[in-house]
């Protein structure tokens, strides 16, 4: 399957030479010795380790804290490709927000029979405790990570939606910092859209949804479960980059439906909370009573309209992979038009006919838990053992409603530095979309994840995947010198130059 995949630099398998727009990148690869590429890549990874950019691997006794492998060869999106993707992403996130407003409010989509009611009301990710609450400015999905895959020059598909607490943006930013420092010549060859103003964009989004009456300078904090969480580096990185306080549950208190932060100078009112704590643990008075990670009374303060919570509680229903299978209908229902970004063909195993098909074709399909993440609870049929297939067969028969299945796609590849040299490896992509009171913005970049093992389609870091920088090209010829300067797009800027 790897040989048949579309390569984003070289083009189709039968093509002789690089895609014309990316010939400079191909020449850079040809002219830069492998030893030099490895030196730069090692330099980046040493920096990541020094900074503490690690993730936790749960359930393993050795090397539980690891860096995510970084690849020095960037992934590139042409300006027109990005324009099309951005339109589709804005449409999709607007539909997700409208869907969340509706199902926790009037539920028109259920009343009109577009979705089966039990798929929502019986879903463990649906939070009836939130029903009827209107978040400030009616924004529910403030930060979305929409996972995309590519199979051809113009074939992009949404693989899944991440509307709860999407992670990975710190890797997007640190990867760019490393590339600007180690490969400045690439920024002379290409006009690359900037990403390093993301923290400013995020802070402005947070401030824009502060409750009315918060004043001109709403107080924003980032709520983390603590340093044992796998994404703790990202939590501290973002809080520091935005200049806001990183807090844990013990730092916050609710009094008379107002949230306060404890400081050495006394209590300080909090207006906006970017929470990286799952719903289950957010408020022990409403969700899990044994939770020590949440803030008692937080949901009452939220219901009273006195604090904005980003992302809004209850968003997990939009992540559900069974809901994903209805996204074309959801987009059509709320936008009145067809989805600009298609989904991957999906069989809902809760439906008897679909289950029969999946059971008959397990060796050809990818099977996923509807609420799974991180590459866990997934079967990749073509590479699975007979024993793995039979285990999944038993699980599907026992609890079919917990699974969906999809065809095994020939994911696009990007040249990647591996032990043998530069070779194609499969990739996916997570762009980040911000929604605030002033509308929806797509960050011109994102997190490219790469499956480092030959032939593998599993890109998750917990399953051995790595990351690449993602270049979004701006229209026009390069204008930057190799030594220094800035580039700007959509209000985001990056500084070029520095030592290699």
Mind explaining what this structure looks like?
This protein has 500 residues and is α+β, with helices and mostly antiparallel strands. It has helices at 23-31, 34-51, 79-103, 108-111, 117-121, 169-182, 184-189, 198-208, 232-242, 298-303, 321-324, 327-335, 352-360, 386-398; strands at 55-56, 65-66, 70-77, 143-152, 155-162, 220-223, 245-247, 252-255, 258-263, 266-269, 272-275, 308-310, 347-348, 365-369, 378-380, 403-407, 413-418, 421-430, 432-436, 439-442, 447-450, 466-472, 484-489, 492-497. Strand 17 and strand 18 form a beta hairpin. The longest helix has 25 residues, at 79-103. The protein is globular and about 70 Å long. The model is unreliable at 58-63 and 479-500 (pLDDT under 50).
Characteristics of this structure?
500 residues, alpha+beta, five-stranded mixed β-sheet, four-stranded antiparallel β-sheet, 24 strands, globular, disordered C terminus
């Amino acid at each position: 399957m790897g040989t048949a995949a579309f390569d984003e630099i070289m083009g189709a398998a039968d093509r002789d030479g690089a895609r014309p727009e990316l010939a400079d990148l191909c020449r850079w690869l040809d002219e830069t010795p492998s030893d030099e590429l490895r030196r730069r890549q090692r330099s980046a990874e040493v920096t990541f380790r020094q900074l503490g950019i690690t993730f936790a691997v749960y359930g393993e006794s050795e090397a539980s804290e690891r860096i995510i492998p970084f690849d020095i060869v960037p992934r590139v999106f042409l300006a027109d490709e990005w324009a099309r993707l951005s339109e589709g992403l804005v449409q999709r996130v607007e539909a997700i927000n409208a869907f969340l407003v509706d199902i926790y409010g009037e539920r028109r989509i259920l009343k009109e029979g577009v979705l089966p009611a039990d798929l929502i009301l019986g879903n463990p990710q649906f939070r009836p405790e939130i029903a009827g609450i209107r978040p400030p400015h009616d924004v529910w999905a403030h930060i979305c990570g929409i996972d995309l895959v590519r199979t051809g020059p113009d074939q992009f598909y949404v693989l899944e939606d991440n509307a709860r607490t999407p992670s990975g943006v710190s890797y997007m930013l640190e990867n760019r910092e490393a590339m600007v420092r180690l490969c400045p010549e690439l920024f002379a060859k290409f006009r690359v859209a900037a990403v390093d103003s993301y923290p400013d964009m995020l802070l402005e989004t947070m401030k824009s949804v502060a409750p009315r009456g918060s004043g001109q300078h709403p107080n924003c904090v980032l709520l983390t479960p603590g340093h044992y969480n796998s994404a703790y580096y990202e939590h501290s990185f973002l809080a520091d980059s935005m200049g806001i306080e990183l807090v844990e549950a013990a730092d916050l208190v609710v009094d008379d439906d107002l949230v306060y932060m404890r400081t050495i100078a006394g209590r300080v009112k909090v207006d906006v909370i970017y929470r990286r704590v799952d719903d289950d643990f957010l408020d022990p008075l409403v969700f899990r009573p044994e939770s020590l990670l949440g803030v008692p009374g937080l949901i009452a303060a939220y219901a009273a309209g006195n604090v904005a919570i980003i992302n809004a509680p209850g968003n997990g229903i939009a992540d559900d992979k069974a809901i994903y299978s209805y996204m074309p209908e959801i987009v059509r229902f709320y936008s009145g038009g067809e989805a600009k970004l298609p989904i991957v063909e999906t069989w809902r195993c809760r439906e008897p006919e679909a289950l029969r098909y999946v059971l008959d074709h397990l060796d050809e399909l990818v099977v996923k838990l509807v609420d799974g993440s991180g590459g866990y609870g997934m079967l990749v049929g073509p590479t699975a053992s007979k024993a793995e297939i039979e285990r999944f067969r038993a699980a599907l028969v026992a609890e079919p409603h917990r699974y969906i299945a999809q065809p095994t796609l020939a994911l696009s590849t990007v040249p990647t530095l591996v032990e043998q040299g530069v070779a194609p490896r499969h990739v996916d992509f997570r762009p980040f979309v911000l929604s605030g009171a002033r509308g929806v913005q797509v960050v011109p970049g994102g997190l490219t994840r790469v499956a480092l093992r030959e032939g593998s389609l599993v890109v998750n870091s917990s399953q051995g995947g790595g990351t690449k920088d993602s270049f979004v090209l701006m229209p026009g010829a390069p204008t930057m010198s190799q030594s220094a300067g800035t580039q700007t797009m959509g209000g985001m800027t990056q500084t070029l130059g520095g030592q290699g």
